[in-house]
Design a protein that fits this description.
Elements: E1 3-5, E2 10-12, H1 23-33, H2 43-59, E3 73-75, E4 83-86, E5 90-93, E6 101-102, H3 112-121, E7 138-143, E8 151-155, E9 160-163, E10 171-172, E11 185-191, E12 199-204, E13 214-218, E14 226-227, E15 240-245, E16 253-257, E17 261-264, E18 272-273, E19 283-289, E20 294-299, E21 304-308, H4 317-321, E22 324-326, E23 359-365, E24 372-377, E25 383-389, E26 394-400, H5 414-436
Antiparallel strand pairs: 1-2, 3-4, 4-5, 5-6, 7-8, 8-9, 9-10, 11-12, 12-13, 13-14, 15-16, 16-17, 17-18, 19-20, 20-21, 22-23, 23-26, 24-25
Length: 442
């Protein structure tokens, strides 16, 4: 059906099989065998129907799907028609979600006892009808934005997989994470936006009373992994939900934990809290806007939070070694508030603090300065305004509201003041005459 070069992931002559249960075919055969259901079954019919039922059950093995409460699915970054879904197997659709077919076997541990408990007896008295407690499922699924068909899957029972040929063959990576307890929930797999051999994996074992942050990376396509947990806190509930690599600066990483967010400017060799203005809240997901250079955090119960990271994307070892550094500013826009026309705003309105008006100027200081003065120059190099900024060590910001040089009022002589007054009187007289004549002068 397909020939694949497993070293490169290239495929030729591909006609992917579309897995479909034969349940309907078996039911049709049973109806044909016993065409008149008003008559009792004959012994030969009973035997043949029993054989068909047995074949029906055998054909259905592996087709029963388990879906997690937080089912992962995504649109391929390489083709908007292609969608991937994670159950206990990976499914793919090339028709925007229609006609899904399997591209993997069951990727979980398939612990029959835990699956039976989670699907039939959860709750004690009655089963959990919502499926929230379903076990043995894929909970993280992703594709490399660099190479199509490079897929990564992680499960809630500790399995980590990758395929280089869109499901033609899957490689089990689960035993390559030293220090992670067996069966630990795979909270996120994050492929690098620039390198198909680099990706990140985070684990969450808090369900077993283990609040340790587990963060790993590979640069050789999953052959080896190393921990980049470094100095992330281990004494509290800082288990990790998500990790992101910045699309503009590969050394800049962010993680979201159950109590907030952290950042690293050296690819995980060290971390620092990134919480100014952000409440103590579980950060379940992070996204980096590639155009606006903003980090968006999705929290559990505390809405979305956005922070400008354009300056952080420019941090290099040279910047950190300098006494002072001025970051390239983002494009700034002059605008004014639109007039209010009395439109309805509904029962309530939500309002949050907007960024300061004007051009944002960001700079970094290695040490505290008693006073910081920033000069705004025009195209000729002339200073048009001087701003006072904070002198604290670290990254600081100040906004320039587009003000220019103050234009001095002209000093008029007595004759000039008299002539100016007479001129205004003449203008007023002419306008009054036009209006009296029935002509609108304005």
């Amino acid at each position: 059906i397909a020939r694949a070069n497993l070293a490169t992931g290239e495929r030729t002559g591909l006609v992917k099989p579309q897995w479909r249960p034969r349940y309907d075919q078996m039911e049709d055969s049973i109806l044909i065998e016993r065409a008149d259901t008003a008559k009792p079954e004959t012994p030969p019919q009973r035997r043949r129907i029993a054989e068909l039922r047995t074949r029906q059950r055998a054909d259905s093995i592996g087709l029963t799907l388990r879906w997690n409460w937080n089912t992962p699915f995504f649109i391929s970054p390489h083709n908007p028609q292609t969608l991937y879904f994670g159950a206990n197997r990976v499914l793919k659709s090339t028709r925007r979600g229609d006609e899904m077919f399997f591209i993997s076997p069951d990727l979980t541990m398939a612990d029959t006892m835990k699956i039976r408990v989670s699907t039939r007896t959860t709750g004690g008295i009655t089963p959990d009808a919502t499926g929230a407690e379903t076990y043995g499922t894929i909970v993280s699924l992703n594709e490399s934005p660099v190479r199509p068909g490079f897929l990564y899957a992680g499960t809630d029972d500790g399995k980590v997989w990758m395929t280089r040929n869109d499901g033609g063959a899957w490689e089990d990576l689960s035993t390559r994470f030293g220090g992670v307890p067996a069966g630990t929930y795979v909270s996120r797999i994050e492929p690098s936006p620039r390198d198909s051999l680099t990706f990140y994996v985070t684990f969450d074992n808090h369900r077993n009373g283990d609040f340790t942050p587990y963060v790993y990376t590979t640069n050789d396509g999953g052959r080896t992994f190393r921990s980049i947990t470094a100095n992330l806190p281990t004494g509290g509930p800082d288990f990790v939900h998500v990790i992101r690599e910045d699309p503009h600066n590969r050394d800049l990483l962010f993680v979201g934990t159950d109590v907030g967010a952290y950042m690293s400017v050296n690819r995980g060799r060290s971390w620092q809290r990134f919480m100014t203005g952000l409440p103590t809240v579980p950060v379940h997901d992070l996204r980096i806007h590639p155009r606006d250079r903003e980090l968006v955090a999705a929290t559990h119960g505390r809405v979305f939070w956005i922070v400008d990271i354009a300056a952080l994307e420019q941090v290099t070892p040279q910047v950190l070694a300098a006494d002072a550094h001025l970051f390239a500013p983002p494009v700034a826009w002059q605008y004014a508030d639109a007039p209010f026309e009395g439109q309805s705003t509904g029962q309530q309105t939500f309002a949050a603090a907007s960024p300061p008006y004007g051009a944002t100027i960001t700079y970094r200081l290695a040490t505290r300065q008693a006073q910081m003065r920033l000069a705004i120059l025009d195209a000729t190099g002339d200073t048009i305004q001087t701003l006072n900024g904070p002198g604290a060590p670290g990254v600081n910001r100040v906004a320039w509201g587009f003000q220019g040089k103050a234009v001095p009022r002209p000093v008029l002589s007595a004759a000039q003041r008299r002539d100016s007054s007479l001129q205004m009187q003449r203008i007023t007289h002419v306008l009054d005459s036009l209006q009296t004549a029935g002509t609108n002068p304005m």
